[in-house]
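Spend some time on the protein that follows and explain the fold to me:
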Amino acid sequence: MRVFSLSVLLVVTLAACDSSLTEPPPPLPPGGDEIVEGVNLTRLFATPSAEEHDAVRAEWATRDANRSGRYRYTIEATGMDSDGAALTVLAGRDAATKAVLHYGLVRVPGHAGEVFSLPTLLLCPEGLATATESDLLRDASYGFVRDGSVQVLMTYRGGTLSALGQTFASAAEPDAYDRDVDDALALIDAVLAQISRTDANRMGAYGFGRGGAVALVAGIRDERIRAVADLAGPSDFLSEPFRDEARKLLRGQNSAFPADASLAEQLFIPLREGTLTFEAARIALLRRSARPFALDLPANLIVHGTSDFTVPITFSRLLAQTILGLRPDGAPSVFLEVDASHTDLLTLSEAQQAVGAFFDAEIRTL
């Protein structure tokens, strides 16, 4: 296990510990620009301009300003889990059509008669179609998080939630990494308004894989989120680590990348077929990316396995370097490398302990 506390003192240490923190991009093919299925990847993955950053920020601001009018949340089921915590299932609906977009599962620790508020933690799961009660952070290794916080587990559009002996399904069209964040922030709004013992002043976000990217962007967009734990999340869709995935998506090849089918349907197939403009595709990829907006991140913990072949660790190494370069004296940042694959990361006790200790330090108290 290697831990990097991202501070001025470790500028040299980071570079010395691992020469692969900065990996050279693949060589260009003969002739210059790389063209795949008619799409110029060299141009697609060029560094975003200031104007593109501004366009994304403007889009986020518009969405956030209109959020309360676009969603309606209803309580669908309530019950208890095996250790006495209260569970509530919420349905997030399109305010205009009343169609279910996604679901949320809220866990409030036992002692329901108590009225004091608790830190509130948004949980953003991996990019699979189903979320279950097992996605809650209930292992003892998570420390205070288990019984000292309200946990808010989101699901994604087009997915299902299995909880309280029932299955709740959404028929909405998936929009991975983009509308995921809108849904996460709308769910937070609803939980703070409808669920007792939540605390808007002590909020964190946790995510794994697809959820890691969602949690990072949610933390950038919403100042209520004081701390973000990102486990193996793809943090930049305009970076070299994603370029190989883009090649596969353009060629229609199979991939293990989280929510690859949604990315193909929303972006890469339309781009290849000419129904999505090049400029719109770049903005859409930038909108899904945390690293270009890393200056706005709250306190953060980045955890990644060195044997992760689903979401390459280079994503997190580049994010860590960017944070260090932009804000050496900013909010606390910790980068943790562990010897684990993508799927093993969630059950690794040292990763769980790091998550628990991080949120204990950042959101347990005001």
Summary: The mean pLDDT is 91.
